[in-house]
Amino acid sequence: MCAGLEIRASDAGDLPALERLYRQTFPDEDLFPLVRELLDERADVVSLVAAADGSVAGHVVFTSCRVDGSPAGVALLGPLAVAPACQRRGVGGALVRAGFARLREAGVAALCVLGDPGYYARFGFMEETQIVPPYPLVAEWRTAWQGMRLGDPACTCSGRLIVPGPWQRPALWAP
Questions:
Q1: Which of 57, 65, 89, 118 could staple 52 via S-S, CB 3.0–4.6 A?
Q2: 0.85 cut: is pTM over it?
Q3: How far from 170 is each of 23, 26, 80, 163, 173, CA to CA, in Å?
Q4: Rounded to whole angstroms, how far apart are CA atoms 91 and 159?
Q5: In what helix (H) or strand (E) does residue 98 lie, and over which residues does it extend?
């Protein structure tokens, strides 16, 4: 299922496969409603699928956001899901890197993620100290709030991240 990987923009026909993917990848979390809401706001997201052998092997969403008081373009990475059979085979990395390329082309200056530092550090993410998440994080999640600059590394975006409607649920930011 993971051979012959193609990274492409998702489309409406992918929704049933994405629902199965998120249920398989995150059996204890129901992330698909968030994904569906993000995809409904198509103009504000980059949504990529990794297709292999006619199946969806992975998916990632990058949501356009802004930082209060800053004109710089900022995005939020997530969710990212890879089919269990394709994990540790470069599918997630291929999706993330393809997203970086699209965001750079769009002039996005900074990217944030709330995720495993051990995973995201390989892409250049570091603990984010200038862009504040939209909701307070519990102490054990503080190092999971990470960022990276996509364009000029001297970009000094600082302030609170302003997220679109689907991300404005405090439960998404707390355990």
A1: 57
A2: yes
A3: 22, 19, 19, 12, 5
A4: 33
A5: helix 91-105
